[in-house]
């Protein structure tokens, strides 16, 4: 009985010894910085960190975003690297981790990237919630959190307060406003029915649209919402059809539901013009299954050239993109929008690195806040246009579905 | 403090020398106290999150391990606690009010669910508790005015006081470690009290328990409520560690992961709760280093391997190893298994 406690003592002693041994490699060592240079920057490399949803329900989108960026960085590295303002050419080294779209994991990845991997900047961290979870830390620790992969306005709208965080793609509000502008430009009386997802995303689309039509002849006459878990939108569409509105604005985020909504409206003998947000504008997943031919008008918006769009088949940007995707991520689908966005965002980062005069984290942020010009895959007429109140891409083009494909409207 | 004790005697044996316990406890306290001062912020965050999830798993253990019920609802209570403190902080109310609000609300909801659920057993109870996270996620999105909707809430709570000179990660570590130590000690005391024996009786044989004067339904409701309170408290600690809460956190997957953590660590073991939580937090980080794209696949492989090699969990397996090292034949099976 006297020995009853001895294993416990022994285990405790081992534990103490282990931690004291670990203590030898303490904090001083982990925050090593490479001489006078900024963290993550050597004479030959610049280290960038990323956290994506590579598992879980959003894994397909997260993986596509990662692959798109990788294919651009690989091409730049294969050509030698990024020529920076101090005359040195540096290869881009990307350290990336999976967060499974879990904010707690994203925060851990942020810690690891900034204190262990010592990255120069975070790039294209994926999704609204994971980015929100690290935004405050990134700003108080002055770590650039660049071109986050989310259309939420919160990442770009107040860069005076949060200068280290910025988005890339146009916000959902901007997209909603683009449809409003398209309708009001016709200067005719139009009635609109709206269906939107009952969350921040749906509200952002609708807010952008509503403020865009303010004071015009375009009026919203019916409005319905749905939950992402709803199996169909039949009841909502039936209610909206009773309004006999001229236009149906579908702020829906789920392709399958959109296809069902379009065919339900037609089945009820209601043939409005359709405005489909770009999340659900896929020809194969939405328009073909809905059975509509576009004769009554189907419109959407875009800001990058789609890899499966025939009008860009001979376009140098698109050809490069498809070829690089094939090299860097064999088997990955280049038509997934997240991949094209990742590619464009990577090009934007490379452009910012080239133009950064003062190669520090603050210097990079300064450059990003004044970034203008073009990057590959943007639609004709669209350019980077940095501001302190929005992401660098703040415009979209309206396109119409005609003869089985999307065509830009001049 | 009683972790090491449980390592040796998962069911709290009778013969224990007081100085042995004190030394073990003192050793643990020293280790835990020195750790954040010498380790990297990333290591501190991992330990902090491990302790957060350990509290949630301990709550689950009270219900599942001690009392023999099933629950898939722990993520909902976790969310109630987290939102409770985050919403209060968001409105500028003091943290202790948020803590109280979150924990009490979790307990009240737990008790309300338990009253009808206590009549059910096994799969039926599992199905009822399954609805909790299914309801909680859309609710958190709908109550946008208070919860911040789908975007969630960014809060700043438990800031390191100026005089400590500690970095945020170190202070958060101490706050969470102190909170976890308190509720672990409470659980240890509870386990040894007549409540613990009553929970055991309910698990082993309800009819027998009734015959011995244990009010089965009452103890089931109590276990459920305690479990919810621990879940809620873990949620509060989560907000201290992460400073953010959004609906993504309380999804059903977390409930399942916590249950898996409990199975990994081993039932009815305080050390097991910590080990299960450590597995959930640390293993994906390690597999992510190996291959970012396959981190969860590798995590699944590790999970399978542990369950195949140590079907009763890591803590009982360790227990056996320690006994063998000590040159004593341990009981292979704990009573009630």
User: CATH topology of the largest domain in chain A, which one?
Assistant: Rossmann fold
Report the mean per-residue pLDDT of chain A as an integer.
Answer: 90
| Arithmetic mean of pLDDT of chain B | 89
Report the structural category of chain B: mainly alpha
Secondary-structure element string of chain B: HHHHHHHEHHHHEHHHH
The CATH architecture category of the largest domain in chain A equals 3-Layer(aba) Sandwich
Q: Which sheet architecture does the biggest sheet of chain A show?
A: 7 strands, mixed
Question: CATH topology of chain B, anyone?
Answer: ABC transporter involved in vitamin B12 uptake, BtuC
What are the segments of chain A in which pLDDT stays under 50 over at least 5 consecutive residues? 1-5, 22-35
Keywords (chain A): Signal
Family (chain A): Belongs to the leucine-binding protein family.
Domain Leucine-binding protein (chain A): 45-372
Protein name (chain A): ABC transporter substrate-binding protein
Defining key terms:
A: 410 residues; alpha/beta; Rossmann fold; 2 domains; 7-stranded mixed β-sheet; 6-stranded mixed β-sheet; 13 helices; 15 strands; B: 337 residues; mainly alpha; ABC transporter involved in vitamin B12 uptake, BtuC; two-stranded antiparallel sheet; 15 helices; globular; disordered N terminus; disordered C terminus; signal (chain A); Leu-bd (chain A); ABC transporter substrate-binding protein (chain A); Peripla_BP_I (chain A)
């Amino acid at each position: 009985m006297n020995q009853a406690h001895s294993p416990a003592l022994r285990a405790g002693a081992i534990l103490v010894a282990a931690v004291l041994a670990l203590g030898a490699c303490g904090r001083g060592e982990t925050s090593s910085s490479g001489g006078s240079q900024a963290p993550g920057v050597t004479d030959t490399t610049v280290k960038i960190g990323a956290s994506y949803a590579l598992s879980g329900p959003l894994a397909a989108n997260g993986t596509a975003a990662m692959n798109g960026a990788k294919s651009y960085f690989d091409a730049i590295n294969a050509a030698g690297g990024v020529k920076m303002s101090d005359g040195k050419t540096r290869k881009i080294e990307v350290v990336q981790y999976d967060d499974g779209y879990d904010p707690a994991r994203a925060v851990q990845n942020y810690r690891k990237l900034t204190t262990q991997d010592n990255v120069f900047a975070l790039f294209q961290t994926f999704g609204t919630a994971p980015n929100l979870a690290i935004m405050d830390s990134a700003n108080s620790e002055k770590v650039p959190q660049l071109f986050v992969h989310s259309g939420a306005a919160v990442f770009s709208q107040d860069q005076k307060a949060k200068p280290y965080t910025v988005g890339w793609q146009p916000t959902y509000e901007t997209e909603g406003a683009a449809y409003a502008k398209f309708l009001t430009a016709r200067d005719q009386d139009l009635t609109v029915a709206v269906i939107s997802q009952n969350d921040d995303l749906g509200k952002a689309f609708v807010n952008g649209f509503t403020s865009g039509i303010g004071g015009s002849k375009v009026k919203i006459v019916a409005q319905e919402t749905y939950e992402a878990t709803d199996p169909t939108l039949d009841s909502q569409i039936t209610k909206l059809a009773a309004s006999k509105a001229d236009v149906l604005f579908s702020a829906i985020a789920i392709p399958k539901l959109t296809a069902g909504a379009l065919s339900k409206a037609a089945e009820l003998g209601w043939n409005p013009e359709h405005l489909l947000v770009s999340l659900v504008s896929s020809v194969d997943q939405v328009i073909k299954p809905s059975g509509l031919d576009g004769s009554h008008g189907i419109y959407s918006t875009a800001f990058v050239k789609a890899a499966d769009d025939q009008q860009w088949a001979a376009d140098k940007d698109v050809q490069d993109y498809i070829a690089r995707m094939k090299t860097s991520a064999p088997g990955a689908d280049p038509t997934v929008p997240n991949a094209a966005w990742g590619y464009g965002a990577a090009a934007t980062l490379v452009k910012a690195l080239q133009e950064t005069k003062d190669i520090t984290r603050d210097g990079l942020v300064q450059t990003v806040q004044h970034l203008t010009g073009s990057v590959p895959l943007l639609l004709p007429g669209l350019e980077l246009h940095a501001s302190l109140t929005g992401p660098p891409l703040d415009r979209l083009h309206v396109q119409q579905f005609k003869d089985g494909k999307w065509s830009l409207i001049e | 403090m009683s972790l090491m004790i449980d390592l040796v005697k998962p069911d709290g044996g009778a013969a224990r020398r007081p100085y042995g316990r004190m030394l073990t406890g003192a050793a643990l306290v020293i280790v835990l106290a020195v750790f954040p001062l010498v380790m990297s912020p990333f290591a501190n965050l991992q330990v902090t999150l491990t302790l957060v999830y350990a509290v949630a798993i301990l709550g689950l253990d009270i219900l599942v391990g001690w009392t023999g019920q099933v629950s898939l609802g722990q993520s909902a209570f976790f969310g109630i606690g987290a939102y409770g403190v985050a919403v209060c902080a968001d409105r500028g109310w003091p943290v202790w009010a948020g803590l109280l609000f979150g924990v009490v609300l979790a307990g009240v909801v737990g008790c309300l669910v338990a009253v009808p659920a206590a009549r059910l057993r096994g799969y039926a109870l599992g199905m009822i508790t399954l609805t909790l996270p299914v309801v909680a996620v859309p609710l958190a999105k709908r109550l946008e005015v208070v919860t911040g909707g789908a975007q969630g809430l960014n809060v700043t709570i438990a800031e390191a006081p100026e005089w400590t000179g500690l970095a945020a990660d170190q202070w958060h570590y101490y706050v969470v470690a102190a909170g976890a130590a308190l509720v672990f000690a409470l659980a240890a005391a509870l386990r040894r009290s007549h409540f613990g024996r009553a929970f055991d009786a309910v698990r082993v044989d309800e009819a027998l328990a009734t015959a011995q004067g244990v009010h089965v339904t009452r103890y089931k409701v109590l276990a459920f409520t305690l479990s919810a309170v621990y879940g809620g408290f873990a949620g509060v600690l989560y907000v201290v560690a992460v400073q953010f809460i959004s609906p993504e956190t309380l999804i059903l997957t977390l409930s399942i992961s916590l249950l898996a953590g409990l199975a990994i660590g081993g039932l009815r073991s305080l050390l097991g709760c910590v080990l299960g939580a450590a597995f959930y937090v640390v293993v994906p980080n390690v597999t992510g280093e190996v291959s970012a794209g396959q981190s969860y696949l590798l995590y699944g492989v590790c999970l399978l391997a542990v369950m195949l090699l140590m079907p009763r969990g890591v803590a009982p397996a360790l227990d056996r190893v320690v006994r063998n090292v000590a040159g004593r034949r341990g009981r292979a099976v704990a009573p009630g298994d």
